[in-house]
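Re: weekly structure request thread

Next one in the queue (217 aa):
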Amino acid sequence: MRPPAIADVNRFIAPAIDAAQQAGVRHIVFLSLIGMEQNRVVPHYKIEQYLIQSGVDYTFLRASFFMQNLNTTHRAEIQQRNEIFVPAGTGKTSFIDVRDIAAVAALALCEAGHANRAYDITGSEALDYAQVAAILSQTLGRQVTYRQPSLLRFIWHWRAQGKPWPLILVMAGIYTSARLGWAGRVTAETERLLGRAPLTFKQYAADYRDYWLPASA
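Done, posted below.
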């Protein structure tokens, strides 16, 4: 996994890959980004290319947007303000549970047949954020509202909270992709690889419910 704060692939990631090879690592599973092959400016693209050129066996897990971002990055706004504040418009996202990503990674490392392959992995459904808010409302027993801010209002809001510009710009790019309809593609790869349906957003919300309970609870 690329640490989110690291964008300089040549300085930080490439030496790590070289050291792994020198230590005898024969297969690297890399958590990449769905649609990455059409977006060559993201670090994921450079890392994939370096792995291909390195000669080590690789498996690329090109994952969609993590469900768990809602109980980490967006936890406070849901827990404290009962809102989802992202500029995704009415666009849909094929959310995936990180537990399914981990299960696919384990298969890729432990089973034969996954070397030098790339998998686009998503959940089984594409949801817009109004639907996400409705599921969270039902799960938590209180109203959670999707505010649907403009991109400029989102940027101003996050900056006013003291968030760093690199994070704000990454988030703006992610949600603009959703707004434009680029994040909603659903694939069958997760189910094919795991032999079961991906975890649903409803299941995720139920499992992580405690994260959004009021602090006093």
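The chain has a mean pLDDT of 94. Residues 65-96+123-184+199-211 form a domain with the UDP-galactose 4-epimerase; domain 1 fold (CATH 3.90.25.10).
Next request, please.
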